[in-house]
Batch of 2 targets.
Target 1
Amino acid sequence: MNSKQVFSALTVSLSALALAACDGEADAPVEEIAAGDCPPGITVENGWLAMPAVAGNPAAAYFTITNGTDRTIYVRAANMVGSESATLHMTVEYDFEMQMQEVAGGVTVEPEATFEFEPGGTHVMVMGLSEEMEAGAESELTLTFAGGDKCSFPVTLYPAGTDPRESEAEEG
Ligand SMILES: [Cu+2]
């Protein structure tokens, strides 16, 4: 029922695509379109990026990913528009110091589970931000899953030291 409501809300903007699908575009099922730019059942929300305090340093991107499918998914790679490269990172304590390292084998999201990419935890390290990528701008992050599926979503750029989750908590 929910998905039907979503379909009707999207009917206007997707009508052209729906017509194309009726014309025999069998490899563009409606479910994929209705789920946005992610595979069916997978959603990503609250995408944001913390700008580096020093220009040229890496930035870090965070978001909430929900796996509504009945199978485990593995995030294997990330790319962001307006950057040279991006790496899946986790923060670990080593020798009593917090350090970052690449996530070996990808980030696992269990079936029917939500996983937070968040400061102090798992994040996407973004290298080589282009000059147009200023605080307040929006970019697009794309995740690649094991098997090759991709998921693209917007990320809002915030100045270094700003955490939009805190301001939301204060407002609420
Ligand atoms: Cu990192």
Target 2
Amino acid sequence: MENERNDTAMIQADQVRFRYDPHKKKYAVDGASLQIRKGEFVAVLGANGCGKSTLAKHFNAILLPESGTVTVEGIPTTQEDKVYDIRQKVGMVFQNPDNQIVATVVEEDVAFALENLGVPPAEIRSRVDEAMEMTGIYKHRLKGPHKLSGGQKQRVAIAGVIAMRPDCLVLDESTAMLDPRGRETVMNTIRRLNREYGITVVAITHYMEEAAQADRVVVMSGGKIVMEGTPKEVFSQTEKVRALRLDVPQAAELRDELVKAGVPMPEGIIDEEECAQALYELLK
Ligand SMILES: Nc1ncnc2c1ncn2[C@@H]1O[C@H](COP(=O)(O)OP(=O)(O)OP(=O)(O)O)[C@@H](O)[C@H]1O
Ligand SMILES: [Mg+2]
């Protein structure tokens, strides 16, 4: 599909199988293989219960495969003496910001994990300030997290992970509980961390508009990876995407409707701007 790079993958999952109950037949992840390259922004989509969170938890050794392998920068997650290194390289951000905030002042919250690791105070100070700048919450550093909006709280949680200087962020529906504005600020922050700071991003999302911003989209179904490609490659297969009980971006849907109505719209339209441009060309 795309050219393979020579550098080691950020994350490499090979034929991963996992079940929560070894006495039952059902596998939550059922033979998933996936490579996340360094610097990539990958969105993971799939209907409820298809195994997205379970697979993501394999990326920093929260879960270990029953069979198959996961490596992080070449290190197998089963290597017990490397679990700390792996968790430092791959940071996880979850759905509910309230469950991830532990301190009563923003900057203390961001510093929390570093303090627990015994990082020297001066180093903590500089890393925490940097993380708060990177996530756009520096101006709120002295506030109580409970006074912040959902989007701001989620950025505090991201800053806490960024302060660990991870190479990769895994976000499990980290915008799902936010209002549209909060979602946008968090997405902008994630994109900036990816583009400006080169942090690899794996974002599980139910929002097609968010997935459309990724370099690559991976679709899961029944514990397996069933589609993979650029957002254009994936979302232009509207029938197949819908058959997996997923939406397509509104612009792709509109393009399909127009084609059905006899308007000769070009292929591969997935965002509003492209859609508007194509209509404009047709009307000229
Ligand atoms: N802690 C658990 N114990 C037992 N079964 C679980 C547990 N967590 C998830 N499962 C089951 O494993 C399967 C995959 O769940 P998972 O949470 O990975 O899916 P998901 O794609 O993240 O879903 P969602 O979109 O709802 O977050 C489902 O059948 C789910 O019910
Ligand atoms: Mg999930």
